[in-house]
Design goal:
Length: 135
Amino acid sequence: MDAELADLMAVGSGALVTAAAGDLWNLIRDSLAHLFGRDRNQGVVTAELELDHARLSAAREVGDSTVADEIQRRWHVELTAAIERDPLAASELRQLLAAVQRQQAAQPMRVRNVVSGGRQGKVIQAGLIEKIIIG
């Protein structure tokens, strides 16, 4: 397998796990089932993906990144197998990643800040501070 495909699968598995853990699950679920299940029962593949999605959602709620890491490694293996079985799967993966990128660009960014520590003081949140003039 060439380096371009290896990069595609590495980036793809990470991007798809991120999308599945977030708000894009409905966008990617059927396409992932098709990619992963070319020679398997689609119902079984979809059920496995739904379980992964549930695990990702639960892990995200408690801040556990180990689940996402484990699923990303497994999805990387699945993508590799799919592309080795059918080289056209690489094109489908590229199309799916492009759809994810378009949807992510269209969504507003969410920010969650937590301040703790029991001390008094000021907290400043800023996206960009370009110029400060004192005096």
